Each structure stands twice: as C-alpha cells, then as structure tokens.
Amino acid sequence: MRLKNVNGTSGLKCGCGSWLDHWAKFSGQSIPTYCVESSCYEKQLVGAHVQKDSVSDRNWYIVPLCTKHNLKAESIIVGDHVVLVPANTSETCNKSMYGSLTGLGGLYSLRR
Q1: Which of 14, 42, 82, 84 has its CA 20 to 30 A from that of 76?
Q2: Do strands 45-52 and 2-5 pair parallel, antiparallel, or not at all (unpaired)?
C-alpha cells in the first residue's frame, strides 16, 4: 500500500498521550519494533499522520513510522497488513468525550 506523509501536523494532539499510543489503542496491535515502511529497520517510532496515495481516499490516518520516513514528502510503501487508524479524534479517542467535533474535522482535542 502506498502512503504519503501529511506534513505540518506536529502540533495536533489527541487524548491518548501520543499519536503512537493512539495507533496502538485503536489498531488493537502492539507497537511494532520497526518502522512499517517495507524496507526500513529503524526503531525510533512516532505515530505519523498519513494519507493513502490515492485520489479516492483523502482521509488522514495514523501509522507507526520512524522519524526519517515521517519527514519524507514522497510516497512510501508499507505492507498491506498495516492497520490504518483514523486520525480524526471525533471517530476515536474523543468520540465519547465530545461527540462529533466540527470545523477542524475533530483533529484537535479540546483543552481548557
């Protein structure tokens, strides 16, 4: 599966503590040892905001990538087994707390 990194998302937050924890919680899987890019063996992982490299699906997802692949602008290849977790927190970690957030697509958590 081909994915593209969504740049400029480092300021986005969710209620899970980190985007990597968000991925683990909603994928139902353990955080992998290595980056999910098909040829990478880096171990320093982050929860990366990505999109499918497709015109038919413009949603944002979270996957575990190394910091190098998280900064790449070009497409990367990951295995078809990689679970794409929605980055829209109104569908995941903030669903029960806030219901459906509007305006920014639920990508920002509400902080007081």
Answers
A1: 14
A2: antiparallel
98's tokens: 């806030």
Output the six-digit token pair for 108.
Answer: 């920002």
CA distances for 38 relative to 3, 6, 33, 35, 75, angstroms: 11, 19, 13, 8, 12
| Rounded-to-integer distance, Cα 29 and Cα 18, Å | 15
Which tens digit of pLDDT belongs to each residue from 46-70? 999 999 998 889 999 999 999 999 9
Q: For residue 27, how many C-alpha atoms fall within 13 Å in the half-sphere facing its CB?
A: 21
Which residue from 73, 75, 10 is spatially nearest to 38, judged by alpha carbons?
75
